[in-house]
Amino acid sequence: xxxxGYGASPVTTVELHERLRRVRSDVHVIGLEIDxxxxxxxxxxARLGLDFGLGGFELPxxxxxxxxxxxxxxxxxxxxxxxxEQIWQRLRGRLTPDGIVVDGTCDELGRLxxxxxxxxxxxxxxxxxxxxxxxxxxxxxxxxxxxxxIHHNVPGQRVHDALGALDQxxxxxxxxxxxxxxxxxxxxxxxxxxxxxPVLDGPARWRLGELSLxxxxxxxxxxxxxxxxxx
Length: 231
Fold this sequence. Notes:
By secondary structure, the chain is α/β, with parallel strands linked by helices. It is built from 7 helices and 8 strands, in the order E-H-E-H-E-E-H-E-E-E-H-H-H-H-E. An 8-stranded mixed beta sheet has the order 3-2-1-4-5-6-7-8, sandwiched between helices.
C-alpha cells in the first residue's frame, strides 16, 4: 500500500500502518513525498512493513511492484481539475488487478471527508464520511468534495442533485433525532436509497457516518471528466 503525499508530518502513514497490521500482519505501507526534507524527517520511523520514499504520481516501489491500494488524501486538490483524469489514469496503471485508488479530501481533524474510489477501469464510487455528533446537515460535505467534483456542485450537475437529495432526506428524518444521530443518519440513507439513488453500502457503515454512492450517478456532465467513466 502507498500513502501518497503524506504531508509535513508522517503521522497519517504511521497510524495507517499500525491499524492495518492489526488485521494483516504482512501489510507493507510506503509513504511517498516529493519533498526530500519530509522524507528525511520520516525515515527514522521506518520499521518492518513501513517505509518512506521520495516520489510522486509515478509511485516508485521496490522492483516496480504493482500496488494494491493507493491512498491520496488532500493531494489532487492542489492541481487543476483538467489534470485529474490524467493523474487518475497514471495511478490506476500501477495497480494490481484487484487494486484501488482512494482519492480524497478531508478537513484538518478528519471529521469531514469524502473520497472517490477507483479500480483499474475507472471511478467506482463516492464515499462521504461525517462526524455525526453535532452535524447540522450531511450536505456540508460539499466543501470537502474531491477535486473531480467540487467545481461541479452547481445546479444542473448530478452531484448537486445528490447533495440536495441527501439534505432533504436528513430533514425528513428529523423526528428520529430523539433516538440519536446515528438512527437519524440510517433513516436518511434508507430514504435516499428509496428515492432511487444508488447507495452501495448498508447500516453498518451508515451508523459510522459513512455513505457511498455509485459514480455513475454523480459523474459530471458537459466539459471536464465526462469521459472518465468506466469502460
